User: Fold this.
Amino acid sequence: MACRKFMRTRELKPGMRIDHAVVDRMGRNLVHKGSMLDEYIIDSLLKLGIMSVYIQDGEDLEEKKEIPLSAVAQINIEKYRTDDRSKVTLSASVRKRVSEGIQYIYSNTGTKEMADASDSIASDLLDTIEANNAMAIDISTLKTSDEYTFKHSVDVATIAMIIAKRDCLPKKQIREIGISGLLHDVGKTKIPNEILNKPGRLDDNEFAIMKQHPVYGYDIIKNNKQFNAAITLGVLQHHEKINGNGYPLGVKADKICSYAKILSVADIYDALVTERPYKSAFSQRDAIELIMSMTNELDMRAMQSFLESMILYPVDTVVELSNGEIAKVVKNNPHYILRPVVVGVLSGTVFDLGGDLNCANIIIK
Assistant:
C-alpha cells in the first residue's frame, strides 16, 4: 500500500511527488497534490518558508504501475507507436529568469525597463520554442511562478506564441505576440486589491471595474515607443469576441487585431484549467470541449491552430474507452485532439478514434 513520508524541504530531490496541496493565505493552490517536484518548485517552497512536506512513498503508486499487455497488444503498440510532436520545455534556469522577469514587469509598469524585460522574456520563450522546434504545449509543465497573475501571463504568452508558430508567422511577430501575452493583464495592477483578490465571484459593480483592465493596460503601454500598435491593440482587445459581445469596446471580428484573436483563445483556455478561489479548475478535456463550442465568439483560425497545438493524451497514456476497454495511446492526430489512435491492452485491438468510422461511437472516458 502506498504511504506518505515526512521530509525536510532541503532534502527533497527532483522527481519526488508531493502528497499534499500547498496553498497560500487565500486558499489558492500553489502546488497541487501529486505534483512532481523539480529544482524550481523545491526552491520556491524554501522561499515560501515551507521547511518540510509530505511526499508520496511506495512502489504501488499509479504512476509506477506496469499495465499488463497481451502479446498482440505489445506487437501493435510497437507497430503503431508514434512519438508526440516536440513540446515546449522550459529549463530550470529559463523558468527562474522568466519568473523573476515577469514579477519585475508587474512591479515596474510604465517604465522603459518594463519594456526591456518584456522583450527579454519573449526572446527567452522564443529561443526555447526554436531550440527543439516545439509545435505543441502542455501548460502543466511550465510552472513559471507560484503567483496566479504571473503564471497566467507566461502561460498565455507561450500558448499564443505556439499558435503563431503553427500559423507560420515570422519570428518577429511571434515574439511580439509573446510580449502582448506577457502584458495582457498588466492593467490589473490598477484594479483595487479587494476586487482583484476577492475569494469569491465578483458582483456586477466589481465586474464592471474588472472589465476595465484591458483599457488600463493599454493606457500603461500605449505611449511607449518600444511597443508597436499590434502589441498595444493585443492588450486592449484580448477580451473582445468576434460576435461583438466582448469587452471593453464590444467590436466585432473585422475590428479585432490578429494578435488579440490569438490571445483570446490562449487566455480563455488557461483561465479555465487554473484553479481559483471562486472556482475549481476544468480538466484539460472539458476546457478544450468548451473552447470548441465557442465558434461564435472565437476566431476559427486561431481556435484551430490552438487545438492542433495541444496534446491532450500524450503517447503512452493509459485510458478507459466507453466500450469498457483499457487502452494505451500510441499516436495523436492534431486534427482530432480528443480522438487519438489507441490499442486495447488485452485485446490488442487498434482503435483509430479519429479516422475509423467504425470507432465513431467510442470515446475516451
Remarks:
- The chain has 13 helices and eight strands.
- Confidence is low (pLDDT under 50) at residues 59-64.
- The radius of gyration is 22 Å.
